[in-house]
Here is the input.
Amino acid sequence: MDEVASYEVKNLCGLMDAIFSEAVSDEIAKIRKEKCCDCKVDYPSQRRHECLMLTLEESWTTYGLDAIEQVIERGILWKLFNEAIRVQKLDYYEVVREHYENLTKNYEITLEFLKDL
Here is the structure.
């Protein structure tokens, strides 16, 4: 693999990480809303929703594994990533597929990795 291809692979893996992080973040927000009792019966006077009281770190810790599982099971990451490649007319490398497989192998390790992004 030449230097340009190596640079492209690094960028594609970074793109995949960013897409994954964003998809998991969106899924965490969705799960938080679903599990919040105050959101189920949303009275205008309620201001202390459980979903609003959690910090970002607490949300990732509490709902992160479920969110990662949902994103992977529904194929959201792969769909969004392939669309980004198609739109930007980027080359596909098998190394990127290996990166995807590593991300989807162990949810706990992936959660720690995504929290650090």
